[in-house]
């Protein structure tokens, strides 16, 4: 996978709206049509009462004229309704439909989002992660609050920062119903809730390729956060002071909290993207992989951090294939998987003295850019590829022999490289996939292709005939690179792209 940098023409501080609804018309055009209907409805014949019944002919002509006028009005209204219905039935998919013109922008349809907020960043960010918090699980009420961390890709290396943020007062997307007067007062109160963003920064000297927060942070009180830098070094920070500062007025962050508590230099000057904390080892176990195909394990001891001197490395002829992503097993604390640029998904065991993969499976003819291990079903692993395809694998079918397993699900909907893939931690059938075609798609693997309702929809809408029935939602975000589910707010996602961060939740999940 090539270096995933943002476009040079990104304008700082601007943010294109997210993906528009499949059926929504531009607001201005809708208003135009409604206005025409009102004018036509108010139209009256100024001569309708000027004639008495002096002659049969006059009465007949007047009746015919009125009837013709009414018929013409009815036909015009019918044609406008048909035209509007035809426009509304047109699906817009950014990577398949006609490209936007120079003066056109996509606007989000509030009826398909339960929540949508855009966060402008000083520079594009290649990666983002969510900090676990103490606000409770299964949070569904509004306004919502969450904590995130990201790192920049500044034009000058010295201007880079690690940014930790608290986003609060995130209101539910308002969909006004003119006929519903009962909730008018409640809606007015919600409208006055302005989102609040608080941030703390740590200066960096290089671009960060990937950032990951330990899933045990809320339980241990240590917000261990690792960053994979383009200079080849991996930095481990404790962001607990930054987290505390958001909720403790007057708290001063110590200077030591703005420096890494440990630096991994085993990769030399070779950069990488693979980075993951173990979900089962609470003391802290970190895997980092680089573009030369080496994976190092760093563990926490009672007094310090220790990185194994011998890296894990594939023994095949393509052993120097870049490790693009790493995922610890969600069930076994010694097992992990990697996705490599030679198209293989490899399963490893940290107990191996040879530091070689236990199983290697060809998943794609192109790079395997990203992988995701399912939290709920520990034998499911998803992989996203450089040709835009992605699939889900049943690890029980993997073997060390020459047999090549087939994915239990495979999709080629996206038209550009997959940049991120993630199982919903609260629903094993839902998968989020981001791509270089500027979209994030949500998929429901539990949907059956022969579902009667879906079959009927595909018959009624011609645009649906080549769209997989498992596709739930398409969210548009320019140069999207990373997408993460919030484990404590069901259905909430945070994605990062060229224009900043999107915090969103759809009505589909």
From TrEMBL:
Name of the molecule in the record: Ribosome assembly protein Rrb1p
Highest taxon of source: Eukaryota
Taxonomic source organism: [Candida] anglica
Residue ranges of domain Histone-binding protein RBBP4-like N-terminal in the record: 103-170
Biased composition (Polar residues): 12-23
PANTHER family the record matches: GLUTAMATE-RICH WD REPEAT-CONTAINING PROTEIN 1
WD repeats: 316-358, 411-445
UniProt cross-references to PROSITE patterns, sorted A to Z: WD_REPEATS_1, WD_REPEATS_2, WD_REPEATS_REGION
Primary localisation category: nucleus
């Amino acid at each position: 996978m090539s270096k995933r940098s943002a476009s040079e023409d990104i304008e700082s501080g601007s943010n294109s709206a997210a993906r528009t609804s499949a059926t929504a018309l531009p607001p201005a055009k809708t208003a135009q049509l409604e206005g025409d209907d009102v004018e036509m409805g108010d139209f009256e014949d100024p001569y309708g009462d000027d004639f008495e019944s002096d002659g049969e002919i006059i009465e007949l002509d007047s009746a015919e004229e009125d009837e013709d006028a009414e018929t013409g009005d009815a036909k015009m209204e019918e044609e406008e309704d048909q035209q509007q219905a035809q426009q509304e039935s047109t699906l817009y998919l950014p990577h398949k439909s006609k490209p936007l013109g120079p003066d056109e922008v996509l606007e989000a349809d509030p009826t398909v989002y339960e929540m949508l907020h855009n966060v402008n960043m000083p520079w594009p960010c290649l990666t983002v992660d969510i900090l676990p918090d103490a606000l409770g699980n299964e949070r569904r009420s509004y306004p919502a609050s969450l904590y995130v961390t990201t790192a920049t890709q500044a034009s000058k290396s010295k201007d880079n920062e690690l940014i930790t943020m608290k986003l609060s007062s995130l209101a539910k997307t308002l969909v006004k119903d003119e006929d519903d007067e009962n909730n008018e007062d409640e809606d007015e109160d919600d409208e006055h809730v302005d989102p609040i963003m608080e941030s703390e920064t740590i200066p960096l000297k290089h671009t960060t390729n990937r950032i990951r927060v330990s899933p045990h942070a809320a339980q241990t009180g240590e917000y261990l956060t690792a960053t994979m830098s383009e200079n080849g070094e991996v930095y481990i920070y404790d962001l607990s002071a930054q987290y505390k500062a958001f909720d403790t007025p007057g708290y001063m962050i110590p200077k030591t909290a703005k420096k890494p508590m440990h630096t991994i230099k085993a990769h030399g000057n070779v950069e990488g993207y693979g980075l993951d904390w173990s979900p089962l080892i609470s003391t802290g176990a970190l895997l980092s992989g680089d573009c030369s195909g080496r994976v190092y394990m760093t563990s926490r001891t009672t007094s310090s951090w220790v990185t194994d001197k011998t890296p894990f490395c594939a023994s095949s002829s393509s052993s120097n294939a870049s490790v693009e992503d790493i995922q610890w097993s969600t069930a076994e604390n010694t097992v992990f998987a990697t996705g490599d640029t030679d198209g293989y998904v490899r399963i490893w065991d940290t107990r191996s003295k040879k530091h070689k993969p236990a199983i290697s499976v060809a998943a794609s003819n192109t790079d395997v850019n990203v992988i995701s291990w399912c939290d709920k079903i520990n034998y499911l692993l998803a992989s996203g590829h450089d040709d835009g395809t992605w699939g889900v694998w049943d690890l029980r079918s993997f073997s060390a022999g020459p047999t090549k397993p087939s994915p239990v699900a495979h999709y080629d909907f996206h038209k550009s490289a997959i940049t991120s893939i993630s199982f919903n931690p609260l629903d094993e059938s839902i998968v989020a996939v981001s791509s270089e075609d500027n979209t994030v798609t949500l998929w429901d693997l539990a949907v059956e292709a022969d579902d009667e309702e879906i079959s009927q929809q595909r018959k009624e809408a011609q645009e649906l005939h080549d769209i997989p029935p498992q596709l739930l939602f398409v969210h548009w975000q320019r140069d999207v690179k990373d997408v993460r589910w919030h484990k404590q707010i069901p259905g909430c996602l945070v994605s990062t792209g060229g224009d900043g961060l999107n915090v969103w939740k759809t009505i589909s999940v």
